[in-house]
Write a structure and sequence with these properties.
The chain is mostly beta strands. It is 12% helix and 38% strand. The relative contact order is 0.10.
């Protein structure tokens, strides 16, 4: 049980559904395991249509894929047509006649989620409108449609464009949209800023339906393995398994290897017309469990020959279990021997299970030998002895067996540079240390015993002023040190960081986004210090904030060494406190609260060494937010925008915000006692939203409204009916062109009107 030291921090800040800060992808608590779903592009290209998407949703919901964990039905390029007069993106009325909102509703009704595609450039790869300059408007539109996933491509870029700035802007826009939307970057190669902006990021060029493309994308995805983890994944592109270019054996190999490298499992075949063998591959529960392992480590190439590669992925947090892929890259069967010490286990006995045959193979000493089919894979689960823990006192890392190690050129060199010379930084020679070349990753089992990690770091003197790298240190997946850019010849840095309670220490070196040439990086004198033989709990969490509302949202600062957090609650500042939840991310929503009751919260960290003491306490009063304002209209008059909306019961005041297509909402007015506001600073391109406040907390914002009445309405004939579609607003009808107009009951953003022989007039009221 955690220890309680009471220190009350009263909190009155409301939780706003729209953030005004530059929120980034990693803060959205989504994709804590790699996303699983289907995407239209590999099979249908940019020729996808509404009927196809619905048929894929029907298939996934009923063929066993949904039960196996697949969630997303993702529409790739080609669904857009153009933008209306206000800049709102429109679905192609020919291929998506009912609109994306209706398709999302259809997919959601089957217990699945919908994804769409856009591009950070002016145009998509198919020449459709991109999101450049429309990021915030598009994000709000996707949220209003019920979109759950956005794939963000890399075509049609304006001169001098910054991909980093574009992707960060869309990440912020999605975070501010009021809806959880997984963000998948598709920039065709990796840059080190991507984990700050996306839930996944493409590390490779587009995959093709060939075995050589499979090999290339797998190889290109491996170097940045240490960046992967819950909420952020390396993506070697969508699966071709089940398409005609790969044999059944090759498709089995692709799916197995994608699971091994913790890749998003986004299939790209025709789900309505696949063999029983393909379905069996895609729903193999033991392989999917490897991909979805909650520890979130990515598998890497660790050993093997030029013919059969050995890939291994740590499972769980005990360092004694590995998923292993033996991958044959030639057409004929080949034998291979798997040594335990080559995959981060100690020599001795280990059990082996075949994940394709779903069979235990037995217990083996030191190694396991088998044949691998041509162009195929053998997938194993090996349970053996974890690397030995550090001992009391100073432990140079060269004395510890890594749980894994890899480097971009050559192999990890103990006590010498990657060039084979004595480790030398700024003329100082070190007798102990590790030499690597970017990209590299080293992982060690600390068992929550160590208290400090220390090392001098820099580019080895052997390359002079060449070489550019960034050193990074991670504690159980949380980054605790970043050197920034380091060049050859620049002064070394000294690392001395607290690793109390840390189970998994990961040391990464990236290439500073300019290639790996001359990136001779040294972890000089790298050591961990153990001062206590008993595992230590992780540090106490800090920064606990409780937001008024219902549910109550708790957030706090992530703690190195924590694998989860215990959430405690009481209705009294002096307790007693009850453990109400285990959270695996540094936030929690408490829905089991009563209106007008004040609650007191504290959190503790849980790690390999047990549970920490609890944080200082935060208090907040639960209160139901008021309803979201409806009926927002914007009338333009004399250079001013006159806003009106419907009154909200129990609202004490209202808040108005304003944005452009490419900028976030900013505060215009707050504390308004009436349901009307005049913005004398209106400018073309502004759109508005309004929220209600009941004196305790604020509602979500209303759907946006423009200072314009220009809305494009699509009309098409379908047998004896006319079908109307529109992007936003409420459809109204009248028997005379001048009205009176009344709302069409039950009309979504599409409406089917039987031809009756009498005139009927329609308009859309934006609200």
């Amino acid at each position: 049980m955690a220890r309680f030291n009471f220190s009350i921090l009263a909190v009155s800040a409301a939780f706003f559904l729209f953030s005004f800060s530059n929120a980034r992808g990693l803060t959205n608590s989504l994709a804590l395991t790699p996303p699983m779903g289907w995407n239209s592009y590999n099979y249908f290209g940019d020729g996808v249509d509404e009927a196809t998407v619905k048929s894929m949703a029907d298939a996934m919901a009923t063929n066993g894929m949904k039960a196996a964990g697949y969630q997303f039905i993702n529409i790739d390029d080609g669904w857009q047509s153009n933008r209306d007069a206000n800049g709102v993106i429109l679905a192609d009325p020919g291929t998506f006649p009912d609109g994306i909102k209706a398709v999302a509703d259809y997919v959601h009704a089957r217990g699945l989620k919908l994804g769409v595609y856009s591009d950070h450039g002016l145009e998509t790869c198919a020449g459709k409108p991109g999101s450049y300059g429309y990021e915030y408007l598009d994000a709000l539109t996707y949220a209003a449609w019920g979109v759950d996933y956005l794939k963000y491509d890399n075509c049609g870029l304006p001169p001098g464009d910054s991909t980093n700035a574009d992707d960060a802007k869309m990440a912020s826009a999605l975070m501010a949209s009021g809806r959880p939307i997984v963000f998948g970057l598709c920039d065709w190669s990796f840059d080190s800023w991507m984990p700050d902006d996306g839930n996944s990021w493409r590390t490779t060029s587009d995959i093709q339906d060939t075995f050589s493309s499979l090999v290339n994308n797998l190889t290109d995805d491996s170097p940045m393995a240490y960046f992967a983890g819950p909420g952020h994944w390396n993506d070697p592109d969508m699966l071709e398994t089940g398409n005609s270019g790969l044999s059944a054996v090759q498709g089995q190999a692709e799916f197995s290897l994608w699971c091994l490298v913790a890749a998003p499992l986004i299939t790209g075949n025709d789900l309505t017309n696949m063999s029983a063998q393909t379905l069996d591959v895609l729903t193999n529960s033991e392989l999917i469990a490897v991909d979805q392992d909650p520890a979130g480590e990515q598998g890497i190439k660790m050993a093997g020959t030029s013919i059969v590669q050995i890939w291994a992925k740590p499972l769980g947090t005990d360092f004694n279990t590995k998923a292993v892929a033996l991958f044959n890259q030639v057409s004929f069967p080949s034998s291979v021997t798997l040594n335990w010490t080559n995959i981060g286990l100690q020599a001795g006995s280990a059990t082996v299970r075949d994940l394709l045959a779903h069979a235990d193979l037995g217990t083996f000493t030191n190694s396991f030998s088998t044949n691998v089919p041509g162009y195929g894979v053998v997938m194993l689960k090996v349970v053996g002895a974890a690397p030995a823990l550090p001992v009391l006192g100073t432990n140079y890392l060269t004395s510890l067996q890594p749980a894994y190690d890899y480097t971009g050129a050559g192999t990890m060199e103990p006590d010498q540079s990657i060039g084979g010379n004595p480790i030398t930084l700024n003329g100082v020679v070190y007798t102990n240390g590790i030499g690597v070349n970017s990209f590299s990753g080293l992982e060690y089992n600390l068992g929550a015993l160590a208290s400090r990690f220390q090392s001098d770091i820099g580019v080895d003197d052997e390359v002079g002023t060449n070489g550019t790298v960034v050193f990074q240190v991670f504690a159980d997946g949380l980054k605790i040190y970043d050197s920034g850019l380091m060049r050859g010849g620049s002064p070394h840095q000294t690392i001395d960081v607290d690793v109390t309670g840390v189970n998994r220490l990961t040391l990464g070196v990236n290439d500073a986004d300019d290639g790996i040439t001359n990136d001779h990086a040294d972890w000089a004198g790298a050591m961990v210090i153990v001062s206590n033989t008993a595992p230590a709990p992780p540090p106490v969490p800090s920064g606990l904030v409780a937001g008024a509302g219902q549910p109550i949202l708790l957030t706090w600062t992530a703690t190195p060494g924590a694998t989860s957090y215990n959430v405690y609650r009481s209705t009294s500042g002096s307790g007693p406190f009850t453990n109400i939840a285990a959270a695996f991310w540094p936030n929690y929503q408490d829905s089991n609260v009563t209106d007008a009751v004040t609650y007191y919260y504290a959190v503790s960290s849980v790690g390999k060494g047990g549970e920490s003491a609890v944080s200082p306490t935060a208090s907040v009063t639960a209160c139901l937010p008021p309803a979201v304002p409806s009926g927002l209209t914007v009338t333009l008059s004399g250079g001013q925008a006159i806003l009106d909306w419907n009154a909200v019961p129990c609202a004490a005041s209202y808040t108005v915000v304003r944005a452009t297509a490419g900028t976030p909402y900013t505060l215009v007015a707050s504390g308004l006692a009436t349901t009307s506001y005049t913005d004398s600073n209106w400018a073309p391109g502004y759109y508005y939203a309004v929220a209600a406040d009941n004196g305790c907390t604020q509602s979500a914002y209303s759907f946006y409204a423009f200072g314009s009445t220009n809305v494009t309405v699509g009309i098409r004939q379908a047998g004896a009916s006319v079908i109307l579609t529109w992007p936003i607003g409420t459809l109204q009808s009248a028997a005379q062109v001048n009205g009176p107009y009344t709302n069409v009951t039950g009309a979504a953003p599409f409406y089917t009107n039987p031809v009756s022989g009498s005139a009927q007039f329609y308009r859309v009221r934006v609200q």
